[in-house]
Amino acid sequence: MSEKKNEWSEKLLYAPKNGYDRLSAADAEAMEAYCEDYKKFLDNGKTERLCVDYCVALAEARGFKAYQPGMKLKAGDKVYQNNRGKGIMLAVIGTDDLSHGANIGAAHTDSPRLDLKPRPVYEEAEMAYLKTHHYGGIRKYQWVTIPLELHGVAMLSDGSSVAVHIGDKEGDPQFIINDLLPHLGREQGKKPLNEAIPSESLNLLIGSKPLAGEECSDRFKLGVLKLLNERYGIVEEDLISAELEVVPAGKARDIGLDRSFIAAYGHDDRVCAYAELAAIFAVKKPRKTAVCIFADKEEIGSEGVSGMQSQVFEWFMGDLCKGQGVDLRDCFANSFCLSADVTAAYDPNFADVYDKRNSAFINYGVGLCKYTGAGGKGGASDASAEVVGKLRKLLNDNEVFWQMAEMGKTDAGGGGTVAKFMAARNIDTIDAGVPVLSMHAPYETVAKLDCYMTYKCMKAVFENA
Ligand code: MN
Ligand code: MN
Q1: Which of 1, 64, 292, 434 has the lowest tally of Cβ within 10 angstroms?
Q2: CA-based diameter of the chain, in Å?
Q3: Cα 323 to ligand 2 centre (Å)
Q4: The predicted structure's pLDDT at residue 3
Q5: Domain boundaries in the chain?
Q6: Concatenated DSSP letters for 24-59?
Q7: What pLDDT score does 214 carry?
Q8: CATH says 2-110+265-464 is which class?
Q9: How many A from CA of 353 to the centre of ligand 2?
Q10: How far, in Å, from the CA of 421 to the mean position of ligand 2?
Q11: How far is the CA of 300 from the centre of ligand 2 (A)?
Q12: SS3 180
């Protein structure tokens, strides 16, 4: 199909182009290298805690130092602040002092998953199970009959902590949640999708070998508790002071004959966190201080001491400001924040929930969102025309492929990000991130080109915003 164009169409019409029609050979090569590193990040960061550990290792290898209150810092110095092992902030000090503001990238590294309940272990029909409580917006039917791993930490009665990781190493056992066989699923099959798998049936199968003879009660539960005790020193009461997270097993993989996609658990929002991380690593001596924050708890409303609503951000930025004799309020008032979070990619299999004229498309680059929210923009931050204009110009000036998007049709639903919590701090903030297919599923899909463009976007923000 050939479209007829004249000089007016060239002059007046906005005509976004597929990234592959514009990508330079150098960028195509850099994109592949970037995505290999990103896949490693995913495989090493299946939980928010593992993400922080891996970020610290990468940052220290690049000369970042753990921030100490009162530390003397000069332009080009690189520091990080680990927030309780669950969130992290990184900064590269700028040549301008912080009264000029910072360029901030905010992302989150928690992803939807199944947490263990405080008293998880039980036996039923001579099998042992762990009860779970889902975290974030999952579609429960997607979590049955897939291989699962267990990661987290347990605090023992003597006050020591033990890290638990089962299922990620070659040869490890994994876990599963069972579903009904279709032969007996007649009534289940009539239920709405969201009701077919009730939360209380998301029970993880973990064993069936009894510890003792038939005379002993709880012998199947004891069988698995003994294994946990041998490996980790854990007794049942220790599970009350534990955070154990059930996440999909398996590694990030290229998808498609042309390998243009990556499928993995947790692209939301590690795909944007990694873009920020790689960008702050690439920044040398920026004019304004570059800051990354990877928050926890975004999937349940950015709550708690490790979430984006936590004052930990004021505490870190305030201390950096104090070291320069700058008022934190002046810093925030002059700062710019890219709330880097994923958006929905247009999926032709479910075309009726999207407004095609205002959707993010695969391979069109980083997706900017002026507002998120639901219904009449409820819960949105809604960036101003000035802020959208500033970012649009910045990306065009730096040859970053971008597109403007809403999540879907106004009446179809909605979602939120950390943007409103940054904006509430008197920081100009806008959402931007990678368009994702099957968001919040155990295995989500993104396009490599969009991942790379989000990295270029973050780099442009840190270097030139
Ligand atoms: Mn997100
Ligand atoms: Mn999410």
Answers
A1: 1
A2: 89
A3: 35
A4: 67
A5: 2-110+265-464, 113-248
A6: -HHHHHHHHHHHHHHHHHHHH-SSHHHHHHHHHHHH
A7: 87
A8: alpha beta
A9: 18
A10: 16
A11: 9
A12: coil
CA of 297 to the centre of ligand 2 (A): 10
**What was the pLDDT predicted at 5?**
83
CATH of the domain spanning 113-248, picked from 2.160.10.10, 2.40.50.100, 2.30.250.10, 3.10.180.10: 2.30.250.10
Distance 233 CA to ligand 1 centre (A): 35
Which amino acid, one-letter code, is at 248? Answer: P
Q: Which amino acid is at 350?
A: F
What confidence score (pLDDT) does residue 313 get? Answer: 98
Q: How far is the CA of 301 from the centre of ligand 1 (A)?
A: 10
Q: Cα of 109 to ligand 2 centre, how many Å?
A: 10
Distance 356 CA to ligand 2 centre (A): 22
pLDDT score, position 396: 97
Helices (H) and strands (E) in the chain, counts: 12, 22
Q: What is the mean pLDDT of each run of 10 residues along the chain (465 residues)?
A: 78 94 98 98 98 98 96 96 98 98 98 98 98 98 98 98 97 97 96 96 98 92 98 98 98 98 98 98 96 98 98 98 98 98 98 96 97 92 97 98 95 93 98 98 98 98 95
Residue 439 CA to ligand 1 centre (angstroms): 9
The span from the CA of 89 to the CA of 155, in Å, is 25
